[in-house]
Amino acid sequence: MKTRAAVFYRSHEPLHIEEIDLRSPGPHEVLVEFKATGLCHTDLSVVDGALPWAAPTVLGHEGAGIVREIGRDVTHVDVGDHVIGHSIPQCGHCAFCASERANTCEEMLNGNVFQRSGFSIGGAQVGAFVGLGTFANHAIVNEDQIARINPDAPLEKVCTIGCALVTGVGSALYSADVRPGST
């Protein structure tokens, strides 16, 4: 199918809004129609060159939308479910994923999950930023990077939960070691 996306080609240049190709979902993948996306400082860091990233890539990693199609082995979401993406992919089988430290997944740390993408232009693959690519109307997302949410939740408000909220809360609880009663 075709979809529209904001594609990153070079640092210090605007993103290009264009129609790109999107393949069907594989066995553990989901086609998500993104209805809302956040603009994270990390996306801006790619555009301004502070965070080197391979191009071309569809940026965006804070998104909420509706599942439109699922791969044959997907088990935790179904067509029509409302979902949010999260920006910390997990392979589900490395030692970190089997522990309480799935946020340090070996596949994420070695970059393999960042190769996930259903996007292409003229037959050439286009990346999906951190496996999501929420600056597209539709994207193929691995099932380990989406979570079902209440269908009554306003997508334009919950879209940032997968990065901004977890980053802020994680920083306060685990990096800054904030304790109850702290100010």
Low-confidence blocks of residues: none
| Estimated helix fraction | 10-25%
Separation of the first and last Cα atoms: 51 Å
Structural class: alpha+beta
Number of helices: 4
Got a strand count?
10
H/E element sequence = EEEHEEEHEEEEHH
- Give the strand content: 25-35%
In quaternary terms, these chains amount to single chain
Strand order, sheet with most strands: 1-2-7-8-4
Shape: globular
User: What is the mean pLDDT?
Assistant: 89
How does the SSE layout of this entry go?
Elements lengths: L1 E7 L7 E7 L6 E9 L3 H7 L9 E2 L4 E8 L11 E4 L20 H4 L9 E3 L2 E5 L9 E5 L3 E4 L5 H4 L2 H15 L8
Parallel strand pairs: 4-8
Antiparallel strand pairs: 1-2, 1-4, 2-7, 3-5, 3-9, 5-6, 6-10, 7-8
Describe this structure in a few short sentences.
The protein has 183 residues and is of the alpha+beta class.
Overall description:
By secondary structure, the chain is α+β, with helices and mostly antiparallel strands. The chain is 16% helix and 30% strand. It contains four helices and ten strands. The strands form two sheets. The protein has a five-stranded mixed barrel with strand order 1-2-7-8-4. The protein has a five-stranded antiparallel sheet with strand order 9-3-5-6-10. It is globular.
